[in-house]
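pasting input
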Amino acid sequence: MTALAQSFADVSAPDLAAAEPAALHHQVAQFLYLEARLADTHDYDGWEALWTDDAIYWVPANGDDTDPEKEMSVLYDNRSRIGVRIRQLKTGRRHTQTPRSELARVISNIEVAEVRGSEVDVRANVLIYEDNLRGDTLWAARNVYRLRMVDGAFRLVRKKIALVNNNKPIYTLSFLV
Amino acid sequence: MPHAAVSEAAASAGARDYHALIEPARINSRLYYDPAIFQEELEKIWYKTWVYVGHTSEIPNKNDYVTKSIGPMPVLMVRDKDGEVRLLLNKCPHRGNQLCAYQKGNRTSFTCPYHSWTFSNTGDLMGYALPDGYEGQSKAGLNLGKVPRIAVYRGFVFGSMAEEGISIEEHLGGAKAALDQLLDNSPTGELELTAGFLQHRTKANWKFMLENETDGYHPGFVHGSVFQVTSSGIGSLYGADSTALTRDYGNGHTEFDLRPEWRKNDKPLQWFGTTPERLPDYVKSMNAAYGEERARQIMIDGSPHVMIFPNLFIAEIQIFVLQPVAVDETIQHVTAVQFKGAPDINRRLRQQTMGSVGPAGLLLADDTEMYERNHRGAQILDPEWLVLSRGLHRERLDENGFRIAHSTDETPQRGIWRHYLNLMTEAR
């Protein structure tokens, strides 16, 4: 990431609004692909290191405009709980991930929604194919990310995974989504 | 019965001898995976006995409704225009169309989109389109179907598809005290289940969940990863030295009673992993409601861990509703317990619930993995019989005459099957 950031000098400047849109879009996409690959390959440490200290990792339930402070979500982790989740996966006794899910996800329709100083809000669609002991599951979501440029590289501040069927019963979701 | 197929399947299984499948301390694997047995369970359990449907706080206002279920069958839980709670069946009597397609809302009437028949939220047919085609015909008998019996105990709404049967008080029996214990933890004595439900789809027979909810033998192993990475300290409650108890209330209701441990430690709110200093508003309102001495005892005893047969599980801080949809598929509906008038503890109740249960929960995702492995394993032919003998030698009666045993013993599971056998062999 650092080498890439250096090749887009204007992007790594504190004010991302000054960046050339195509270059910004490219660097955003590269970050999303990296995050997707770390999750798909269960690189728990690498994935956890992407998050900032004020992180929010959120999978809403019953719609995508609920208030997670008042209503139930499938997952609503702050940085501390992300850490617990990762440590649990690393015990080797997180039974639902022992053996691990085999995963391949595709991210598309990446749109830079808003740029504010060193932060950028991004929308993307994602399809995740999961194979595990139960069988095959296809997950579809409209994701919203907030990325922050820190020391020349993007970090993940907020990730909302709005599963399109989150108003219905869903199977166990124990991989990094 | 709502479905002809149910009656036929049940009739063909009529000769099944459940005494040959259920013994006091072991059961036959077939009970979990045989589709004909599942059909018979719908008739003899789900569409007959008292089943938990929902909570009155989910429909606080007149004309509120929410879609609930009794077994696989959807049920509209409605507060009608006069404020009365009703359980209506979501089927237009004209052509059988699904009437309401929404999860919840507020409306005085339901109109079928097919031919525009319109029903009041009391279930009565108000009118149909182009009425001249029914000239001279009566509207009698064209109302929505209703759950024949409805009972509300302190906000918990139960329904029974049988016209006659025992009262809800008889059904709940000793387990009613556990519901009271839960509500004692509310400074107003009331719940507000307003945070919405997570729906966890589970590829396993419903009875694996029914049994596991009060299984104190598994947590040290299934949830060992959580105990390892958090400083919860609750792992010891499931060890050999635990003074916690398992209890069989009869009628299929079972409990994992942690009060002996909490009373030994004598620390208010330890059951919730916190202290009075961290929830000052809650403690203040509890003291005001009950007086300091009683409030202190309530906050030491904490909330119950009780499985009300067949589908209401109170897991201290969560309400689970088990919904069987097929012999090999069950939906676990779950929400956070929320006490009316206690915002500071409610926030923590929601946070802990979101972390621990539901499809991504640190605890329930692993339980659910076990359910699905249970179900796949049960279909393997040998051994045919599964063992529920743990703690037979140390089972005893408590002061109320209910069977109790060590926290890791299978007294609850034996009680569940005793009741199940009664229901499945009961004369109609």
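fyi The CA atoms of residues 2 and 153 of chain A lie 6 Å apart.
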